[in-house]
Amino acid sequence: MDHNSVDTKESEPRAPETETYDVVGIGFGPSNLSLAIALEEGPEPVTARFFERQPSLRWHQGMLMPSAKMQVSFLKDLATFRNPTSAFSFVAYLHDTGRLAQFVNNCDFFPTRREFHSYLEWAESKVRHRVSYGTEVSAIEPVTDPGTGAVDRLRVVLRDEAGTRQVEARNVVVSTGLVPRMPVGLERDEHVWHSSAFLHNFRAWKKGGLKRVAVVGAGQSAAEIVRFLYDTVPDATVHAILPSYGYAIADNTPFANEVFDPAAVDDFYRGTQRAKDAIWRYHKNTNYSVVDDEVIRDLYRRASDDETEGRQRLRFARLSRVVDAKRVAQHTRVTVHSLIDDDTYDLDVDVLVCATGYDPMDPAGILTGLEGRLSQDDDGRYRIARDYRLLGADDLTCGIYLQGGAEHTHGLSSSLLSNIAVRSGEIAHSIVTGRTAAQERGVPA
Ligand SMILES: Cc1cc2nc3c(=O)[nH]c(=O)nc-3n(C[C@H](O)[C@H](O)[C@H](O)COP(=O)(O)OP(=O)(O)OC[C@H]3O[C@@H](n4cnc5c(N)ncnc54)[C@H](O)[C@@H]3O)c2cc1C
């Protein structure tokens, strides 16, 4: 492949100084950070640039509560599963920052989320020269080679403080992350928050005024927020509105955990639709709408202690859904429907927190310029090769890769950290060699 440094080749009328990169990464969370590392450690130099709309690397900062822990082993870091001797591993970070002995003494595979964030920042500092922060990608458009008629490059439209500009890329890797989901009919405002912005909103709130809070959801974020509010605002009553009867445990046992192994991606990818459906059905409870054992027990202990002492600061509305929320005088009036007695009632709170999850990454918004050139299945989802490259028209000779948004083709780990080191390695390998690591292992592309 042509891996000269940034070039200015002309193919059609455009600004004379358009930069062209081998790889442009859209979004700079853990997935594309891991890709930047894979490219850095790769056998061939490539020109790569990453564009991130936030002002710096910020990984789920609205949920970095002090006691929140990772739900993935420290060994499933940005690099180790791809390259166990990488200088970018979590162990290298611990060693570099003098924390190795203390971490080992803890005998815990699961770091706190805050510590993991420090690790991400440490790794990011080594590849920062490849990243433009405060820069949003608003569109990707085809660039046609006038000689061959092939779309061999993409124009990436960028928006930053200075205005709009563009670069070109032979390959783009879209990694824009999960999209926060609100309950149907509810909008975010000053008093109705989504969990993704929880800490920002909480810090901005006058804490003294927080007397009654409702948290809707029964997943990990919901349980963590209930625990945090209970512990941090001693006088507040916390209403947990659960769509389930109680919090259900995240299955972290070894056989179930194999569903996140790199080999499971091959099995999912080549499996029949029935096999794919079965994997989702049986193993959703490793990640979706479930809570770590430790957090469940913490909450139960608090509720139980309260009862012993004759107070009830934690209240659970079971099998219940929020159907409306509106501002009434000084309160947010939350309308709750309980399935148990099919009753609807109002609850007045200061704040409603919607820990109602996320939708998968949806790259369609920035790929509209390629409409008609990208293959889709009968349900309108992108068709994706094993190396995470979008399948498309024959004249599409540039590469468009996804990190995320591949749950229907690559399985449960698509939106998670479990497989990012291997996935980034596969994408880097595909970009650099034009072949796929999977094809070499005999898995059809
Ligand atoms: C609170 C929370 C905790 C989690 N904990 C775990 C865990 O412990 N283990 C696990 O496996 N998974 C976990 N996850 C799942 C999560 O998806 C991954 O942790 C991880 O964030 C995936 O990384 P990513 O880079 O693909 O996406 P993200 O981290 O979401 O990064 C995407 C980036 O793209 C940027 N961006 C979006 N659109 C644009 C654009 N148009 N232009 C430029 N930049 C853009 C965003 O600002 C963002 O920085 C957690 C999720 C949440 C919400």
CATH class of the largest domain: Alpha Beta
How far is the first residue's CA from the last residue's CA? 20 Å
- The CATH architecture term of the largest domain is 3-Layer(bba) Sandwich
Number of domains: 2
Overall strand count: 17
Give me the strand/helix succession: EHEHHHEEEEEEHEHEHHHHEEEEEEEHHH
Helicity range of the residues? 25-40%
The overall pLDDT average reads: 93
Pfam family, one: Lys_Orn_oxgnase
GO molecular function: monooxygenase activity
EC number: 1.14.13.59
Catalytic activity: L-lysine + NADPH + O2 = N(6)-hydroxy-L-lysine + NADP(+) + H2O
Walkthrough of the structure:
The protein has 445 residues and is an alpha/beta fold. It has two domains: 20-178 and 360-440, FAD/NAD(P)-binding domain; 181-250 and 288-358, FAD/NAD(P)-binding domain (3-Layer(bba) Sandwich). The protein is built from 13 helices and 17 strands. The strands form four sheets. Strands 1, 2, 3, 4, 5, 6 and 17 form a seven-stranded mixed sheet that branches. A five-stranded parallel sheet has the order 8-15-9-10-11. Strand 12 (320-328) and strand 13 form a beta hairpin. Helix 1 (30-40) packs across helix 12 (420-433). 41% of the residues are buried. Mean pLDDT is 93; it is low at 1-14. Flavin-adenine dinucleotide (FAD) is lined by residues 26-32, 51-54, 59-60, 63, 70-72, 136-137, 175-178, 221, 366, 403-404, 415-418. The site of flavin-adenine dinucleotide has 31 residues, from helix 1 and strand 4.
